[in-house]
Amino acid sequence: MPITLLTPNLALLPSYIAALERNWTRDDDHDPAGASAQLARIQQDADAFLASLSDVHGSGPLVELNDGSKVPRLPRARYWISDGEFAGDLSLRWQKGTSELPAYCLGHLGYAVVPWKRGGNYASQAIIQCIPLAKSLGLSWIDIAMGIDNAASRRTAEKAGAILLRQFNTGPEADNQEALLFRLSLNGEI
Fold first, then answer.
1. Low-confidence residues of the chain, pLDDT below 50?
2. Which residues contact 141 (CB under 8 A, 6 or more apart)?
3. Contact 65, 105 (CB under 8 A)
4. Can you tell me the distance from the alpha carbon of 92 to that of 63, in angstroms, rounded to the nearest whole number?
5. Would residue 154 count as lying in a domain?
């Protein structure tokens, strides 16, 4: 089914809430605590919640890594994947003025599709739709990192046209996990 990438909005909020009510969050398919916290924020002020999902200037507070160190927040834009209702989420991170990312940021993209909508190539379609957005920010490529055992994310990256650059260890800031780094060229060069 064709999808669209949309800025988080009030029209899709009810179906996003429905996903949270099933204990889904972008970080975990079963996250009752995380889902409950988001539902409380939405109930308190839905407009503020929606506005908080993106920070295109990277002006938010420092980010604390797993090792306890604090680093500058990168600019990010968050999009909802929609097939007429909320189907998932994609976030794009970047560093102003360069396609490079600091060592503590493993990739430009993070994405998740709700379990009941998986298998329809939603994530790969979302990545492809993100290309013009990334180009408009001056990026020459998009890096996509994933755990070495994440076969679904690997297939998603490959379907979107990304190629495997290398296997690496994430380092202490991400619990020293083995990972894969894919790169999607936006201008034909790797």
1. none
2. 99, 183, 184, 185, 186, 187, 189, 190
3. no
4. 16
5. no
In a domain, 127, yes or no: yes
Q: What is the pLDDT of residue 1?
A: 79
pLDDT at 91: 96
Contact predicate 140/98, CB 8 Å: no
d(CA 93, CA 57): 11
Q: Which domain does 74 fall in, by range?
A: 4-138
What pLDDT, on the 0 to 100 scale, is given for residue 97?
Answer: 92
Confirm whether 72 is domain-assigned: yes
Residue 96 in any domain: the answer is yes
* Amino acid residing at 63: V
* Total number of domains constituting the chain: 1
pTM for this model (two decimals): 0.91
